[in-house]
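Researcher: I've got a protein sequence and the SMILES for pyridoxal-5'-phosphate. Could you write out the 3D structure of the bound complex as structure tokens? I'd like something to compare against our soaking experiments later this week.
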Amino acid sequence: MNNYTTILYMIPIAKPVAGEEEAAAVHAVILSGMMASGDVVHQFEHAFSGFCGAKYGVATTNGTTALHAALLAAGISAGDEVIVPAFTFFASASTVSMCGATPVFADVLPDTFNIDPQSVEQKITGKTKAVIGVHLFGQCCNASALKRICADHHLIFIEDSAQAHAAKWNGRISGNLGDIACFSFYPTKNMTTGEGGMIVTSDKGAADRASVICNHGQAEKYLHSMIGYNYRMTNVHAAIGKEQLKRLPGFTALRQRNAKILSDTITAKGITVPYSAPEAEHVYHQYVIRVENEFPMTRDELMTYLTGKGIGCAVHYPIPLHKQPVFADANRDVSLPFSEDCAKHVLSLPVHPSVTEDECRYIADVINTIS
Ligand SMILES: Cc1ncc(COP(=O)(O)O)c(C=O)c1O
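Model: Sure. Here is the predicted complex with pyridoxal-5'-phosphate in place.
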């Protein structure tokens, strides 16, 4: 144990970093009088999609609306099936249902927590139209395998990049791995706009359709060719996003530094630190350990203990999606052992850019001294 045996404050599990630059950018938008969607949104779309190496960006109100609009733009509708990992945030699957289609749940890999390509192949039917590859916790799923499977079966590959800004697979950045990608800029994410999201793609047709869907189904003012929604981002939010994008490389480096300290110093038997696949550049949206059965406390006991020691922690996610009440009836006979197991054993520890090196060592010390 270090010389600091305890701390007298709570290390939060998440903390957005924003300051004078973001405040000045919002101030300028407010004084411009152009607060709704306009030039600043277009600049942010251009900058963020460019950062992802993609041709087009369509900014939205949040990551959920980005996924909904992207699925609609991909032509997903009633009668279609879309394969989704069972171990992810609810919106990865609820947005499929919002299109009238059916989410079909695939299992995840026990080491990366990401969708298992073999499980995806087993779930393909004549009704399958797309696969959603979620890059969970900041690590890209196996995009090369999913791309191959999607090409072989003529399926659309949608990236749920909500947790994976700047993450890479084989050197290629998230947002540029599939046909269309969706990001979230919620305040806990690796960069934020307050609330916000973006669809990123190099497919002009998909980008045009998504843009119309996000704007009441009108390609021209007051000419509505389809039922659309008001999913438009505002200039106020985009102004924050433009500043946050400049800071993203610094945020990412700090998350990676913190993850390295945690992984190097957590040595407790029965704790498995995050595994990063050799093809992946992990950006640690969350730092997720597994509390194995051999550890002297259960996962829930450890969470309570750490909270008492001033260490904020959280379970992402306690219930796999095929067991959620809204999906359970349709999936009564579905068994996805790794998703079910992960939900029981995972625990997220603080890794965000505001966590200091000393705090990382404190977290490790507290865990290592449990016996
Ligand atoms: C994997 C994943 N997909 C989609 C979303 C939805 O994003 P938002 O909260 O911005 O609607 C989230 C947000 O937590 C997420 O983690």
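Model: The mean pLDDT is 97. The chain has two domains: 20-243, 248-368.
Researcher: Great, I'll pass this along to the crystallography team.
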